Protein: DUF4429 domain-containing protein
Amino acid sequence: MNKVFSFKREGKTTVTITDTNLTIERSGFLNQLQFHGIKQQTINLDSITNINYHPAKPKRGYIRLNTINGNAKDKNIIYFYGKNEEQLATELKAQLLSIIHSN
Structure:
């Protein structure tokens, strides 16, 4: 598996995209994944059907992943906090779209 794209956000969120999966790991607590007790999730890229910006709090970066047979919708949202979060969300969305469309 090749690591295609990876970043760590202010010590809270690490996102790694390979040629087959998207993995999200969290160490912060200000996100809904922690409320579900989930610290890491892996999503198969083939299951992603659409990528949208989450409408809440537009000055922060939120991406909602719609997946085939996905979990509860809140578990498929990636959150970004801090500076340049919109730029980061835009970059991640572009990376995901390019990988998904190339397969």
